[in-house]
Write a structure and sequence with these properties.
This protein is α/β, with parallel strands linked by helices. Helices cover 59% and strands 13% of the residues.
C-alpha cells in the first residue's frame, strides 16, 4: 500500500498546488480503501451466513429422514418447532432458583416428547428419544445461524467497523461448532454414540450382564458385587438418546440405603494441546449442563457426609457432540481401572454409587450388545477420519513442486 501512495504522490509533485492534490488523493484513497475493505468483509460474512443456512437445513433434513410419510403440515410444524425456546427463571432472588430451573427443564422435556409423539406416532420409545435429541441439535443450529444473520444485518445498517471485526474473529469458532452440531444431529437422530456418551458407556461396561432396574422413565440402575462391596451403577436409560435424572435417582436410593461413596464419570472439555481421550481423576461431581442434577447430588453428599470422587475423559468441545472418536472409546478401560481404585481406597462402610454422566444415545444399559456398539463407534470414527483426510488433501496448497 505504501508503494501505491508513493507512486500517486510522486506523480503530483508541483509546489503548493501539488501538495493539495496529494492530500485530496490521500483522502480519496483512504475513504475508498475503507469502503472496499467493508464490502469485502461483508461479502465473506454473507457467504458464511449462507453456509450456516445450508448446515441448518441439512440438520432439519436429518430429522425429517427419520419420519415416515412427512406431509406439508408436518414439515410446517417442524419448521415452527425449530423456533422453540425455554426462558430461564428470574435470578434477582437466588433462593429456590434450582427448583425453578428444574421445573422449566421438566416442562421443556415434556413439550419435546409431546411434539415428537405427534410427528412420529408409530416410532418406538427409543426412536422417539433419538428424534428428541436430533431436534435439540437442529434447534441449536437454527439459533446459531439466526444470531450470525442478525449481526451481519446490523453491520449492513450501521457500517460499524468494530462489530464487523468482532464477528469476523469469531467466525472460525462458529463454523467449527456449526459443523460439529450437524454431525451430532446426524448421530443422535440415527442412534449413534457421541463423545459425551463415554460416561454411560463406562457405566454399561461396569454393569456387565447384571439385571437392569428402571428408577424412572429416563434413568436405570444395575447392582453388582465387587470384592466385599455392593455397587449401584446409575446411568440414563438406553439405547435411546437421554441424559437421565441421576440426582433424583440418587435421592431415591439414599432414602433407603447407606452410601459410602459417590463416583461420577463424565466427558470434560480439554485444553488445546491436550490429548483427546486423556483420563484424569479428582473430587467433586463431574457433570456439565445447567447444574440442577449436580446441585442435587452435592446436596445429598454434603447432608450425609459422603465422599465425592470423579473421573473425567477429556475431549474437545466439538468432539463431545460428534460421533464418538476411537481415542475416546479406548479411554474407557483406563477409566474403569480408576473406578476400581477409588472403590478399593474407600474405608467407610456402605454401598458405592457409580454414575455414568452424559448422553446414552446408542448405548444400552449393560454390557449386552456392547461389542456391536464398539464396532459402530469404530466404523463412524474411521469414516470421519477419511473425511478429514479428504478435506486436507482438497485444500492443500503445494508450496514446493
Amino acid at each position: 500500500m505504501s508503494d501505491i501512495l508513493q507512486l500517486l504522490i510522486g506523480q503530483t509533485d508541483g509546489g503548493i498546488f501539488g501538495q493539495i492534490i496529494n492530500i485530496i488523493i490521500l483522502l480519496l484513497f483512504f475513504s475508498l480503501y475503507s469502503k472496499i475493505i467493508l464490502q469485502q468483509t461483508l461479502m465473506k460474512l454473507e457467504q458464511s451466513v449462507i453456509q450456516l443456512d445450508k448446515i441448518a437445513l441439512k440438520a432439519e433434513n436429518e430429522v425429517l429422514k427419520k419420519l415416515k410419510n412427512v406431509d406439508k403440515k408436518t414439515r410446517k410444524s417442524i419448521k415452527r418447532f425449530l423456533e422453540f425456546y425455554a426462558i430461564p427463571p428470574v435470578s434477582l432472588d437466588p433462593f429456590g432458583l434450582v427448583k425453578k430451573y428444574d421445573h422449566i427443564i421438566t416442562l421443556e422435556k415434556k413439550r419435546f416428547k409431546y411434539f415428537v409423539s405427534q410427528i412420529a406416532p408409530h416410532a418406538s420409545e427409543e426412536e422417539r428419544a433419538n428424534i428428541v435429541m436430533g431436534l435439540s441439535g437442529a434447534i441449536e443450529l437454527n439459533m446459531l445461524r439466526k444470531v450470525v444473520r442478525h449481526y451481519v444485518e446490523t453491520i449492513k445498517k450501521t457500517k460499524n467497523f468494530s462489530l464487523i471485526f468482532i464477528v469476523q474473529l469469531q467466525l472460525p469458532f462458529i463454523e467449527r461448532i456449526a459443523k460439529s452440531l450437524l454431525k451430532g444431529t446426524e448421530a443422535l437422530t440415527n442412534g449413534w454414540p457421541i463423545g459425551d456418551g463415554i460416561g454411560p458407556y463406562v457405566a454399561a461396561k461396569l454393569a456387565e450382564n447384571e439385571k437392569v432396574y428402571e428408577i424412572d422413565e429416563e434413568t436405570v440402575s444395575v447392582r453388582k458385587k465387587y470384592k466385599s462391596r455392593e455397587l449401584i451403577i446409575i446411568k440414563a436409560k438406553g439405547p435411546g438418546g437421554r441424559t437421565g435424572n441421576p440426582g433424583k435417582a440418587l435421592k431415591k436410593i439414599i432414602e433407603k440405603e447407606k452410601i459410602a461413596k459417590i463416583i461420577t464419570i463424565d466427558a470434560a472439555a480439554k485444553l488445546e494441546g491436550e490429548r483427546t481421550g486423556e483420563v484424569a481423576e479428582g473430587v467433586g461431581v463431574a457433570m456439565g449442563g445447567i447444574g440442577v442434577e449436580r446441585y442435587e447430588i452435592e446436596e445429598i453428599a454434603v447432608n450425609n457426609n459422603i465422599p465425592l470422587d470423579s473421573i473425567i475423559i477429556k475431549m474437545g468441545q466439538e468432539e463431545a457432540i460428534m460421533p464418538m472418536a476411537k481415542s475416546i472409546l479406548d479411554a474407557s478401560n483406563e477409566a474403569i481401572e480408576l473406578v476400581y481404585e477409588a472403590i478399593d481406597r474407600t474405608e467407610e462402610k456402605g454401598k458405592i454409587v457409580i454414575i455414568g454422566v452424559g448422553n446414552t444415545c446408542g448405548i444400552g444399559n449393560n454390557s449386552k450388545n456392547l461389542d456391536k456398539v464398539e464396532e459402530l463407534i469404530k466404523s463412524n470414527a474411521k469414516k470421519l477420519e477419511l473425511e478429514e483426510k479428504a478435506k486436507k488433501k482438497k485444500f492443500k496448497i503445494p508450496l514446493f513442486e
